[in-house]
Amino acid sequence: MALLEVHNIHTYYDHIHALKGISFELDRGEIVALIGANGAGKTTTLNTISGIRHPREGSIIFDGQPIHHLPAHEIVQLGIAQVPEGRKIFSRLTVMENLDMGAFTRRDRAAIQEDLERVFKLFPRLKERRNQLGGTLSGGEQQMLAIARALMARPRVLLLDEPSMGLAPILVESIFQTITEISQQGMTILLVEQNANMALSVAHRAYVLETGRIVLYGPAAEVRENPQVRAAYLGEA
Amino acid sequence: MSLGLLLRLGIGLLVLAFFAYRFYGVLVRGAYGAETWARLAISGLIIGSVYAVIALGYTLVYGILFMINFAHGEVMMIGAFAGYFVLEAFAASGFSARQPVLAIIITFLAGMTVSMLVGISLERIAYRPLRGAPRLVPLISAIGASIFLQNAAQLMFGSMRRTYSNPPALERNVGWVLEVAGKPVSITYTGVLTFAFSVVLMVGLYLLVQRTRLGRAMRAVAENKEAAALMGVDVDRVIANTFAISGVLAGAAGVMWGLHNGIIYHYVGFIPGLKAFTAAVLGGIGNIPGAMLGGIVLGIAESLTPAVLDMPFQLKDVLAFAVLVLVLIFRPTGILGEVLAEEKV
Ligand SMILES: Nc1ncnc2c1ncn2[C@@H]1O[C@H](COP(=O)(O)OP(=O)(O)OP(=O)(O)O)[C@@H](O)[C@H]1O
Ligand SMILES: [Mg+2]
Fold it and tell me: Which of A166, A196, A199, B132 is deepest in the core (most CB within 10 A)?
């Protein structure tokens, strides 16, 4: 049984039918990429899993338990953390406080301390800046903080929404390297990206989303070779 | 620089010049002795500390919901009534005379608890169902709640003015007497209690917001509700807690008002509520130290300005609001206010 199963979900914004029956699954330890153009419904998919939005139809099963009716804060507690689009770090909280917020649902102090050391090892830059206000970090550092903050929840599934957005190519490299590293430590990752090339190079499997529907899926290498994908998302003729 | 801005600054400078001119006249004539200034400053400081405590309630709620809780003054009024009835019972049974300290503590606890419950109910009934509606809607609901609470209090308690029965040890208008320029200036016990407890509440609130898990969650929710929810924060609960805390503060202010000023009635929350709202704006709405500073500044301003301008003391309310306008001319975001993020406008 897959760790996360999404069955035929329909999500609306009032009358806008944003997700028109989406199904996919994540197996333990996988990186799955979700790619698609602007407005395809990628963020909506992640927010529906996270419980920020609720599907009008369909179901989401996490580790055998239906979660699509749960409020967002309970879903975090079950072990699904999200790195939201645009980072959304708390600019008036310090780096340290942002990380504490990531561990908000946890009480296991010793393990939190361990995780803190782990994320500081992953992102030494954050350690240097731990008493700085989040809003004063550079874009790249904010993205590191957003990922680190999500890891502080010690999630079983990590949802990443466009982690490469607005970063210089060299930083994009290093963010994707980190994602691979986190994955090798056993994390299950759902990766939403505009940068399809990068996403498909680190992912095991991929789904292509077009106006609220999945139009293509398969092993990442195969999706990458698909002529339509190459034309539409990889900028190749 | 735009014409509008020039005009605004021009008017501001004119008013300032007028203030300075009147004040100069007052000083030259020596219209008031040092003892009068001291007396006014002390009473301003005391009333200002109460404004500050109430203002914190406005600013906390605004910081999280970007909404002015216009019923906040009524939450204070109900707390004042709760304290009143407890003190009445204690006075009648002689408990006030035997155990004044305990009696005061219980009175405060009663006022704070009742106001806390009113604050929580207010949020649940009048504001939560409107979450996500355009911002004008909860504002109108707040005004409705304010009128409702005033009328409910009038129905339940009548419209007569009631006098707080302070314990004998805490009589109103009794206190220590200082000598200033050879003249007596009295510092009342109720005034000292009011000021000291206000400071305790302000420090307590500051520590709560800066140092505790709830405080951190409140700051996170204030900044971004969706991101806070993604961290596992139960946003609705944090909002309810925020209303509970601002209710506690309002209840404490209501009891202090009763103990220090003596008279309460169903309308007693209106003017202090309005003044505290002014204070919150003065300090920079949404900003916690700003609300504290704004309260103190407003209290002192309304107490001193009539004397500074050599105008009748009855004009103090008008002058207090004039000070607000003056500050906003030069600092549209309030004394400590930051430029509002787009999301809050
Ligand atoms: N809050 C909202 N209210 C109304 N419609 C929305 C809202 N958020 C998204 N939509 C609509 O839902 C659809 C899917 O949006 P979504 O944000 O999920 O796209 P996306 O794939 O993440 O796009 P992008 O790559 O630009 O981030 C779009 O048509 C969008 O206009
Ligand atoms: Mg998106």
Answer: A199
- Burial class for A187, CB neighbours closer than 10 Å (0-12, 13-18, 19+): buried
Determine the Cα–Cα distance for residues A209 and B14; give it in Å rounded to an integer. Answer: 64
Structure tokens at B256: 């202090």
pLDDT reported for residue B180: 86
Q: Token pair for residue B29?
A: 């004539």
Which residue is closest in CA terms to ligand 1's atom 7? A13
Same structural domain, A73 and A8: yes
Across B239-246, average pLDDT: 98
Tokens coding A66: 């239906």
Are the beta carbons of B229 and A84 separated by less than 8 Å?
A: no
pLDDT digit string, tens, across residues B143-200: 999 999 999 999 999 999 999 999 999 999 999 999 888 899 999 999 999 999 999 9
Report residue A88 as tokens.
Answer: 């959304």
A27 CA distance to ligand 2 centroid (A)?
23
* pLDDT at residue B264, as a whole number: 97
Range of the domain at A94: 89-154
Instruction: Say yes or no: A32 and A138 in one domain.
Output: no
Whether A26 maps to a domain, the answer reads: yes
Which residues neighbour ligand 2 (ion) by CB within 5 Å?
A: A 42-43, 85
What is the C-alpha separation between B276 and B58, in angstroms, rounded? 8
- Do residues A212 and A18 touch, judged by C-beta distance below 8 A? yes
Q: Are residues A105 and A123 in the same domain?
A: yes
Q: Say how many residues make up chain B.
A: 345
Both A70 and A182 in a single domain? yes
- Whether A84 is covered by a domain: the verdict is no
Determine whether the shortest distance from the Cβ of A195 to ligand 1 is under 6 A: no
Nearest to A82 by CA among A162, A136, A4, A139: A162
Contact (Cβ atoms closer than 8 angstroms) between residue A19 and residue A212: yes
Higher pLDDT, B327 or A50: A50
Residue A171 domain-assigned (yes or no): yes
- In this structure, the answer to whether residues A147 and A178 fall within a common structural domain is no
How far apart are alpha carbons B62 and B285 in whole angstroms?
A: 7
* Secondary-structure breakdown of chain A: helix, strand, coil percentages, each rounded to the nearest 5: 40, 25, 35
| Same domain as A225, residue A133 | no
- In percent, the amount of chain A with pLDDT more than 70 equals 99
* Residue A205, SS3 per DSSP: strand
What pLDDT sits at residue B31? 83
The number of domains in chain A is 2
- Which ligand has an atom closest to residue A209 CA? 1
Cα→Cα distances A210→A36, A39, A233, B105, Å: 6, 8, 11, 65
Residue B135 CA to residue B207 CA, distance in Å, equals: 30
Nearest by Cα to A50 from A25, A67, A32, A66: A67
Shared domain for A136 and A31, answered yes or no, is no
